[in-house]
Amino acid sequence: MLKKSMAFKWTAEGKESFEAIKEAISQAPTLINPDFSKDFILYAFGGNETIYAILVQQNKDNDEQPISFFNQSLDDYEVKYSFIEKHVLVVIKSLKKFKHLVSNKVQLLVSHSGVKDFLLNKYLNEKRVGWITRVMEYDIDINITKL
Fold first, then answer.
1. Helix 113-120 × helix 83-97 angle, to 10°
2. Which of 1, 4, 98, 125 is the most buried (most CB within 10 A)?
3. In whole numbers, what is the pLDDT of the chain averaged over residues?
4. Quick check: 20 and 10 in contact, CB under 8 A?
5. 37: closest CA among 53, 63, 58?
6. Which of 2, 80, 97, 118 shows the shortest CA–CA distance to 40?
7. Where residue 1 falls among pLDDT bands split at 50, 70, 90?
8. 8 A C-beta contact, residue 76 and residue 109
9. What is the CATH number of domain 40-144?
10. What pLDDT, on a 0 to 100 scale, did the predictor assign at position 14?
11. Three-state SS across 2-28?
12. Calpha distance 86→93 (Å, rounded)
């Protein structure tokens, strides 16, 4: 198609792909402005090398709509963290990222109960104290979700 001598062929497969792309673009989530009279919902996830979170609020139909997204590659030393520590790390980093937005109660949804246990554990080391202190700055309910 880049050369003038080549004929352009519009096949059924090409049309199907084009329509699928068009549909995906039209269905992409639209970010909404935060409503500071409502509570926030924060989904937080930790992977082997990446962490990510989504801040949402419910609209008048109780559908969740995204306000902001956060993702970050882990540093070399963070990659060595345990599974639970990575999940707690995304909570801390995403709350810091969304600090200017999260003024009301936050329902924190995580995929592993160990995150809640980590944050509520009475046996603290220096790292846990620092992390828990950062999380305590916010009005948070921690819940477990399955994805």
1. 80
2. 98
3. 81
4. no
5. 58
6. 97
7. very low
8. no
9. 3.30.420.10
10. 75
11. CCCCCCCCCCHHHHHHHHHHHHHHHCC
12. 10
- Span 74-126, pLDDT tens digits: 999 999 988 888 888 888 889 889 988 887 788 888 877 777 777 766 666 66
**Type of residue found at 55:** L
43: its two tokens: 């989904």
